[in-house]
Amino acid sequence: MWNSLSIVLIMIGMVFFIAGTLGLLRFPDVYTRLHALTKADNVGLGFLVAGLMLQADSLTTALLLLLIWVLVMLAGAGAGQLVAQAALQRQHPVAKSQDDGRGHD
Amino acid sequence: MSTPLLYALAGVGLCLLGLYGLIVYAHLLRKILALNIMGSGVFLILVALARRSGDSPDPVPHAMVITGIVVAVSATALALVLLVRFSAATGRNQLDDDEHSP
Amino acid sequence: MGAAMTEAGLFLLDLLLVLTLLCLAWWSLAATDLFKGIVLFIAFGLVLALAWVRLDAPDVALAEAAIGAGLTGALLLTTLSKLASSIDNPPAKRSSPVLLWVLLVMLAAVLGYAIMSLPQQAQGLADTVASQMGNSGVEHPVTAVLLNFRGYDTLLEMAVLLLALIAAWSLAPRAATSCEMDEALTVSPIVLALFRMLIPLMILVAAYLLWVGAHAPGGAFQAGSVLAAAGVLALLCGKRLEGRLAGWPLRLGLVLGTAMFVAVAAAVMVGGAHLLQYPLASAGKLILLIEAAATFSIGLTLAMLFSGQRPSRGPAS
Amino acid sequence: MIEASGTPLPWIVWVILLPLIGAMLCFLWPRQGKTLGLLTALATLLAVIALYFQLLDGGVIRYAVGGWGAPLGIALYADGLSMLMLLMSALVGVGVSLYALGYFKHSPDNPAGFWPLWLLMWTGLNGLFVAGDIFNLYVTLELLGLSAVALVALAASRDALGGAMRYLFVSLLGSLCYLIGVALLYHAYGTVDIALLGTLVERNPATHVALGLMVVAMLLKSALFPLHFWLPPAHASAPAPVSALLSALVVKASFYLLLRLWFDVFSTVSMDLGMVLGVLGAAAIVWGSVLALRQTRLKLLVAYSTVAQLGYLFLPFALLSPLAWQGGVYFVLSHALAKAAMFMAAGNILAFGGHDRIADLDRVAQRLPITMTAFCLAGVSLMGLPPSGGFIAKWLLLDAALSHDQWGWAVMMMIGGLLAAAYVFKVVGFAFTQADAPHDAQPVSPFMEWSALALAVCAILLGLNAHYPLELLAIGGPVTFVSPSP
Questions:
Q1: CA–CA gap between residue D247 and residue D252 (Å, rounded)
Q2: Does the beta carbon of C94 lie under 8 angstroms from any beta carbon of chain B?
Q3: Which residues in chain C have Cβ-Cβ distances shorter than 8 Å to A102?
Q4: Averaged over A49-57, what is the pLDDT?
Q5: Is residue A104 part of a domain?
Q6: What is the C-alpha to C-alpha distance for residues B79 and B76, in angstroms, rounded to an integer?
Q7: What mean pLDDT is predicted for residues D189-199?
Q8: Which of A41, C77, D257, D436 has its CA 20 to 30 A from that of D388?
Q9: Which residues pair with D301 in a beta bridge?
Q10: CA nearest A8: which of A45, A50, A41?
Q11: Does C35 reach chain A within 8 Å, measured CB to CB?
Q12: Would you call B27 and C91 a contact, using CB atoms and an 8 Å cutoff?
């Protein structure tokens, strides 16, 4: 019972990851790509962590997994901010450019 | 093919890629990258073969590789400082005899 | 049947990992843009960390992710921004003569053959280590090897790290004011707030890794590199060492790890024991003492290497 | 064989720890660098001498660090060969330390890093000479290589930075090749202890590949022709005391390691490689000497002379007789002293006139008589004239070649000696003539002049007391080192 719920949660997480990755590959500029990556992956990781917590042996492990999610969200938010800021500073075009959108000249 | 063997052979591949990069590319930063990749290949050989001991892997190569990683980062740091100084002094990023191409 | 499926699945996973590693390494070297090459190298390090996990080497995985990919990557990126010209497009190459290819292919064949000729099963020193674990003062085999059985290697390795820092300082001109990096990056308040939360957390994680190393994967090097990462973040946020700390207190902090190691290693000889022969009763404590000092120094050293300049002893900036 | 545990002071440990502690102190108090550095140098010399007497009393020393013993722990090991290397390093080390006192007073090179870096290098050297474990050797090798690179870069000129960069790449590449060899040996035999490996090693692919990689790594690091390309730029552009250390000690360390591996690890494996090494050595003698002769800058000439002289070290691999090995080791010692003295003298001339163009030496012989005496005495040893250490070394090698009717090698050595005479006299000749454009002269510190002379005199004295080193070499040496009658 718990096992199947866990599998379902992980599967849902995977779907979000795939969506995020597709967005990273297909979206036209830095900002939309960041959007896809940070949002979708954070949710995806949340589901993944929830699924894995059900598999955990002890409460400590479960809490550690939760902590990992929180940390990744913090790091993702910070990194996303930085990339966006760098892109703005270097005036990367916002719209339908086919620029490959790294934050570097 | 067993898992240890697969990873050890991949280590050989990384070593040779690194060696190729070290010899062929002129930009010093690329040479430093190449040495790091070569180092990773050696570490992979060391650790992969430690997996042959059944249930629990042999910890000695693990410790050696951790030592190796710290030595590698020290060497890389030194190489990078040297590169910055060299670049500032000469305005170039490659050594003299590497000027075969633009 | 199920076991065979898992086996096959895992082998496919291994194959995929190995191929990804080789491709990332190649792309990283051959990337037309050096920035891209470095980013790919960091990705390579992270995938390599996965490979370590697959090889049951979690300690190496932690060290690789933190030092190999993280800090080396950060060092490479700051260096790139300091170069006279960071453009190398297309990558300048020598013509690769046939001879080189012959050499590489031969080397690959010879090395591959040597590795394949090794026995499929080998214990190495796994049993010997296991039988002496009770006398090592710690419960985690890798920590026992690093800090006790082969502690002398680790002692010299701390000296190598110290050497890198001394060399970097002797090469880098002393910074008159450390404003160069401050101007390059204007930090938004959101990022600053995030970092304020992250830095204490990272210090906590470092302390945890240090403590857990006695009985599980972790230890001084992993903890030290997390500490260094905290230092790097602080530097990026524009934090600088206060002027009064930049003189001998900083130097003391940098040598503390090596000095403590040497002091303990030599002190245990007083009773006629050998170098690094800890008394059994206090072995655990002494190892923790060495590791704590080492963590602090490793963190400080790596962060200083990242900053790339000797902190000025002038008024605090 | 004795266990050193009972003795209160295991000197084998202190020869490594003392320079390490000194390096940390010099880093902590950079202003006291000179005093602390010199004190450490003297303390290390005393520790090495104490270890020497310990070795004379009790024979070969084997010390288990941490009390574990092989294969779990790391062993330190000292026999006659390691002792000779330690003594050589200590002698040259103290000489160079004294020299550096004067050198960094007037030089534009950055002095702040010299003392801690040099003492860390000494730690690496001594650690390498007493290591009994091939992975530990890797760490000492890195300590040695990285500190050597950092020391070259202290000169901070364009040439020095480029030379240091190239040296770093070569050094790291060599270390990685060596490490692959270590990985293969460990996974083949389950130990990294040299003594244990010596008993376990057998003929199989892994052993042969490890042997090949490790030998190539050491040839690269000891700059045997044709892998010598990195040496002249690095050695010639470094600050003078560093050039002396590199040519005298650092390249010898990798040669020592090669000997250790050859005799203690791979002794049972085929020695077919020996002939190849001998031929490369002979080629190095000719090629290095010819290039030295063609140089117009003094320091480059001395650096190419190192390339040539290193060639002699590899002749014993082809001659394969006890006499030849004794000659090879003797050559290491005499070249270390002579070349250190010669680089120091070249440094004096550079500091004196502000340049090292050979054609413009401008009566340097009259104006720096002590330095020129040192240069000539060192030259006598390099040429192999009696009564110098170089003469004894060449005599042993020649004897080994002739007693087996290997005339080719003997002729090679003769040619090498003649070429050495040619490049030494080229310098000496210009030292007596007046240059077209006389240059202004800077005072040279007496420390620099006398320390160069002292080492040069040691190189000559080495020839007058040949039996001491040879007797020491016999302690615990491989069977092939002990000759029936010298």
A1: 8
A2: yes
A3: 33, 35-36, 39
A4: 90
A5: no
A6: 5
A7: 94
A8: D257
A9: none
A10: A50
A11: yes
A12: yes
Model confidence pLDDT, tens digit, residues C68-113: 888 999 999 999 988 866 667 667 777 767 889 899 999 999 999 9
Instruction: Report helix, strand and coil shares of chain D as percent, to nearest 5.
Output: 75, 5, 20
Residues C194, A104: C-beta atoms closer than 8 Å: no
- Per the structure, the count of domains in chain D is 1
Tell whether D266 is covered by a domain.
Answer: no
At CB < 8 Å, which residues of chain D contact B?
A: 135, 138-139, 142, 146, 149-150, 153, 156-158, 161-162, 164-166, 168-169, 172-173, 176, 179-180, 183, 186-187
Taking CB atoms and an 8 Å limit, are B57 and C122 in contact across chains? no
The verdict on residue A38 lying in a domain is yes
Cβ of residue A63 closer than 8 Å to a chain C Cβ = no
Which among C145, D177, C243, C277 has a CA at the least distance from the CA of B39? Answer: D177
Q: Nearest-CA distance from C194 to chain A in Å?
A: 6
For D230, the enclosing helix (H) or strand (E) is none
- Torsion sign, CA atoms A28, A33, A36, A39: negative
The minimal CB distance from C161 to the residues B19, B47, B70 is found for: B70
**Contacting subunits of B (3+ beta carbon pairs below 8 A):** C, D
Is the pTM higher than 0.90? The answer reads: yes
Tens-digit pLDDT profile for residues D273-298? 888 999 999 999 999 999 999 999 99
Residues C55 and B75: their CA atoms lie apart, in Å, by 26
Chains in touch with A (3+ beta-carbon pairs under 8 Å) read C
What residue in C sits closest to B91 (Cα-Cα)?
C84
Fold of the CATH domain B3-98: Helix Hairpins (1.10.287)
Whether residue D440 is predicted with pLDDT greater than 80 in this model: the reply is no
- Would A74 be classed as within a structural domain? yes
- Side-chain-side CA neighbours of A13 within 13 Å: the count stands at 17
C85 touches chain A (CB under 8 A): no
Please report the ipTM that was assigned to this predicted complex.
0.92
Residue D445 located in a structural domain: yes
- Which residue pairs, CB below 8 angstroms and at least 24 apart, start in C34-39? C34/B27, C34/B29, C34/B30, C34/C80, C34/C86, C34/C87, C34/C88, C35/A102, C35/A104, C35/C77, C35/C80, C35/C86, C36/A102, C37/B30, C37/B33, C38/B29, C38/B33, C38/C73, C38/C76, C38/C77, C38/C80, C39/A102, C39/C73
Q: What are the tens digits of pLDDT across the range C173-184?
A: 655 444 444 444
Residue D449, in any domain of the structure: yes
Does residue D85 lie in a domain region? no
C130 and chain A in contact, CB less than 8 A: no
Ramachandran angles phi, psi of D450, nearest 5°: -70, -35
Is the C-alpha dihedral spanning C32, B75, B13, B52 positive or negative? negative
User: How many residues are given for chain A?
Assistant: 105
Interface contact C167, partner D, CB < 8 A: yes
State the average pLDDT over residues D149-177: 94
Residue C69: in which H helix or E strand, if any?
Answer: none
User: Alpha-carbon distance D386 to D399, whole Å?
Assistant: 15
Task: Tell me how close the Cα of A81 comes to any Cα of chain C, in angstroms.
Answer: 7
Q: How far is A96 from chain C (nearest CA, A)?
A: 22
Cα gap B17→B4, rounded to integer Å: 20
- Alpha-carbon distance of D205 to B62, in angstroms, equals 24
How many CB atoms are closer than 10 A to CB D184? 27
C250 touches chain D (CB under 8 A): no
Confidence (pLDDT) at D294: 94
